[in-house]
Design a protein that fits this description.
Elements lengths: L13 H18 L1 H4 L2 H26 L8 H17 L4 H23 L5 H19 L10 E2 L8 H27 L2 H11 L1 H6 L4 H27 L1 E2 L4
Antiparallel strand pairs: 1-2
Helix pairs in contact: 3-7, 3-10, 4-5, 4-6, 4-10, 5-10, 7-10, 8-10
């Protein structure tokens, strides 16, 4: 007699659906904060949102991808500087410049990966830190953005403080929700499973037909994009940038 076994995959549960609706409610409450909250609360939220996005992208890279980088601050700073240059020198609205700066950070991650991916394990971590130092020293020697002392974001001077803080807050909220959704959907996809397989054993993952190199590059670029997004957003809220910030 042959015994048949049925396997059922549970994609969601009542607890996860409840958590989703609680999250939606929290986002709705947060979106109303500019109408009733103090400006200091909104500034704190923007700063926390930037750190949250940065940490989430690092966790995607190191926690799920197994690529322990200690140089992601390079893309954080790059995003901030690109946003500032677009705003101050190209007359681009800084809020529009935020996603553009993130795209530049993601694009720069491609040639950077050609160097970083030649290293493995602890050497990879140290190599990414060295790359970050190269970025920092490069910006410190660019006089048109203030050199080592940094410079201010002048493109927002004509906007009323209350309006600027409200728009910055809503932008931060959108960035957080978008980043969480992106990471969540990615990890629940086949690509997310492939990434975790690479983390556990690259050789075994490659033997199963997973394109290890392409997957690692994709995750590295996405993590750089997120770091650049967080950096651009952070310095829009801070209004000043320097290589050591």
């Amino acid at each position: 007699m042959n015994a048949s076994t049925s396997v059922q995959v549970l994609r969601s549960s009542s607890a996860s659906r409840t958590a989703l609706w609680v999250g939606v409610a929290l986002v709705a409450v947060a979106a109303s904060m500019p109408f009733w909250a103090e400006s200091s609360w909104m500034r704190e939220f923007v700063e926390i949102a930037c750190y949250f996005i940065f940490a989430m992208m690092w966790n995607l890279l190191a926690g799920y991808g197994g690529m322990v980088s200690i140089g992601q601050q390079a893309f954080f700073g790059l995003g901030g500087y690109v946003m500032l240059m677009l705003g101050n020198f190209a007359s681009v609205n800084p809020f529009v410049a935020i996603p553009l700066a993130a795209l530049v950070a993601g694009a720069v991650a491609v040639p950077v990966s050609w160097v970083a991916f030649r290293l493995q394990g602890g050497y990879f971590a140290i190599g990414t830190w060295v790359i970050a130092e190269v970025f920092r020293l490069s910006f410190a020697n660019m006089s048109f953005v203030g050199g080592g002392s940094g410079t201010s974001l002048t493109a927002l001077r004509g906007i009323e403080k209350a309006t600027r803080e409200s728009v910055t807050f809503w932008t931060a909220l959108i960035c957080v929700v978008g980043s969480v959704a992106l990471v969540y959907l990615f990890l629940r996809s086949k690509q997310g499973l492939a990434l975790m397989a690479i983390r556990d054993n690259e050789v075994a993952a490659e033997s199963q037909g997973i394109a290890v190199g392409k997957m690692k590059l994709a995750v590295y670029v996405v993590a750089a994009f997120g770091a650049g997004l967080a950096g651009a957003l952070y310095f829009v809220g801070n209004l000043r940038i320097s290589p050591d910030a």
